[in-house]
Structure to design on (133 residues):
C-alpha cells in the first residue's frame, strides 16, 4: 500500500473542495493499474464524499441541505462552538474507496471526490492510499 499525505487549504467555514485531480495525480504517479484507491480525512470537523462534479449547484444544495439539517447554532453542549461541524463531518464520513481499473479511478461519468470542510478556513490534509498491481 502506498500512502501520500496531501494538503487541502480551505477558504470558508463550510465548503466542498473537488480533490479528484489531486487523487488522479497520485494514482498516476503510483503506477498502479488495478486495485483500490482510498481517501481518508484525519479531522473531526471535515469529511470526504463522492458526488456530482458537473453542476456546481449540487455542491451548493448539499451544503444548504446540511445547514438546514444541522444548523450552526443549536442546543449543543460542546464548548468549542463547532458541534455542527462535528455532526456534518460524521454524516459525510471520513473515507471513500474507489476501484482502480486500467490505471484509472472507476468513478461514474459525473462523479468527483470532494473534501468537505465544516469548520474552516483552515489548512487541512487528506491521506491517499493506493494498493494493487
Amino acid at each position: 500500500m502506498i500512502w501520500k499525505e496531501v494538503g487541502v487549504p480551505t477558504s470558508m467555514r463550510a465548503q466542498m473542495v473537488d480533490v479528484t485531480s489531486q487523487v488522479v495525480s497520485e494514482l498516476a504517479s503510483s503506477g498502479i493499474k488495478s486495485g483500490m484507491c482510498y481517501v481518508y480525512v484525519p479531522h473531526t470537523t471535515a469529511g470526504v464524499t463522492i458526488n456530482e462534479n458537473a453542476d456546481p449547484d449540487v455542491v451548493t444544495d448539499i451544503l444548504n441541505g446540511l445547514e438546514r439539517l444541522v444548523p450552526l447554532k443549536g442546543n449543543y453542549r460542546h464548548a468549542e462552538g463547532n458541534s455542527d461541524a462535528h455532526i456534518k463531518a460524521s454524516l459525510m464520513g471520513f473515507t471513500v474507496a474507489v476501484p482502480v481499473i486500467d490505471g484509472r479511478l472507476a468513478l461514474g461519468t459525473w462523479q468527483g471526490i470532494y473534501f468537505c470542510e465544516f469548520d474552516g478556513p483552515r489548512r487541512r490534509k487528506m491521506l491517499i492510499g493506493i494498493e494493487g498491481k
